[in-house]
Sequence to fold (213 residues):
Amino acid sequence: MCTKEFSPTWSHIPYIGGGWSEPTAYAEPVHQWLKGIAIVLRECHLDSSRFEQRIPALLDEFCSDPSPIVPDWIKAPKPVPTSLPKWKVPRDLKRRLAKADGSWEDERYDPLLLRVSPDTSFDGPEIPIRWQIEFDPFDERLEAAGERLERRDIEPDSDAWSSVIQRAFRKRFPKLARELHDDSESSTCVLWVESEGACKRLVELVWAMLFKK
Fold:
């Protein structure tokens, strides 16, 4: 069993203002790391010769990259929205929807996505315009909202969020309840309504539930 450990010295790695500096500044610690891998391979009685031969080429490739990949764990988290954007629908919405495969999306409510599409049939007559909102219940910005559900012994997945929102909508807007429909998927909560007025109220309600003060 191989128990060899290798810990290169990283104390001199440059880190400036939330972003990484030029790749060449990391040449020496990366070189130590690659050599350490070779040492561990040898200690484990594995052939490290081919890997050691490639170290100079790997180091050159690393240093020549003008835009090194920033690890996910140092990326700044997306800020949690503070206020609901003003409701605004384009004046030429019907013209946009009339185009082939026409639809319109509004990302101003991120992490909510507002999607408007034409011609939807649902258990009966055709609905001219479908007004839909969707969101990922496991988005990091919705962590606090998910915790509120968990305190009520509710798993904060897409189906649970859909049920909670539907109950709240029907209680607050009983005259619009018949317009609300669910089309959620395993990883996305999807709700849609049949009119702009109902959608505006749905967006306001969901926003308040997700970002409750």
In short: The longest helix spans residues 27-43. Residues 107 and 181 are 21 Å apart (CA to CA). Residues 9-19 have pLDDT under 50 and may be disordered.
